[in-house]
TrEMBL record, chains A, B:
PROSITE patterns attached to this UniProt entry: HTH_HXLR
Entry keyword annotation includes DNA-binding: yes
Alphabetically ordered keywords of this record: DNA-binding, Transcription, Transcription regulation
Stated name of the protein: Winged helix-turn-helix transcriptional regulator
Ranges for domain HTH hxlR-type: 19-119
Highest taxon above the source species: Bacteria
Higher taxonomy: Bacteria, Bacillati, Actinomycetota, Actinomycetes, Kitasatosporales
InterPro entries from the UniProt entry: HTH_HxlR (IPR002577), WH-like_DNA-bd_sf (IPR036388), WH_DNA-bd_sf (IPR036390)
PANTHER family to which the protein is assigned, alphabetical: TRANSCRIPTIONAL REGULATOR, MARR FAMILY, TRANSCRIPTIONAL REGULATORY PROTEIN
Ranges in coiled-coil conformation: none
Pfam families xrefs: HxlR
Amino acid sequence: MVTKQLLKGLPEDADLRRADSLAREIFSDIANKWALLIIEALGERTLRFSELRAEVEGVSHKMLTQNLRMLERNGLVDREVHPTVPPRVEYTLTGPGQDLRAAVDVICGWTHQHLGHIENARTRFDT
Amino acid sequence: MVTKQLLKGLPEDADLRRADSLAREIFSDIANKWALLIIEALGERTLRFSELRAEVEGVSHKMLTQNLRMLERNGLVDREVHPTVPPRVEYTLTGPGQDLRAAVDVICGWTHQHLGHIENARTRFDT
DNA sequence: CGGTATCCAGTAGGATACTG
DNA sequence: CAGTATCCTACTGGATACCG
């Protein structure tokens, strides 16, 4: 449970509280637009930096590197540098990354499936 | 496909391009920390505003109202006002909201399942 | 109790330029 | 080509105060 605070102050809770705060931290990391879109893009295949930039519509150079570092740090993405010139850097989802990707896929599917419902809800709301 | 730009400029594409940009807009709306945590919290049961505030650890009054309006506008959440005094306002997931909640559940599960992997990846990365 | 408005500090994030 | 650093604006989001 990410949303719930663990019960107060018993000494034995120390480990659980740490795990919970770690979970919340990770959740905050990945629950953002660019991270999820990058994961989704990498689901199909390994991509180089420049390919990712083209694939993830609207992402800036800065946001892309920033999120890639974060995903790498959390073990969701592997970064492979080919020491050629010019350099060639490839990003691949790790196992856990692939798992998460499946969930993101569901969200993407959900979005397209409910476009109509949402559009209606919006016009109803905006009046 | 949320991440891909649709193919350029053929007149027949107008509808598809509209759908795609709408999808991206919706995705940006819901792919944020607070929205997902609120959906997750409401998955268990209908909650009043103040209960939500307690349930979603760390959310501010402002962020909560803001995200609730957004979720209501997109038809993910129903808002029911009981005209008592003091007022009582209850929030419930709609059908589509419940569907999305299932996906968010998967992400929450994923997070807890891979805590170890992630922690290791982090210490490896941070050296 | 729940919602809205105001203020403002912190930061996210774009543009740009430079390195290997 | 990919990464890092710098600058600078715009917006996010918290605190506070006030209405119904």
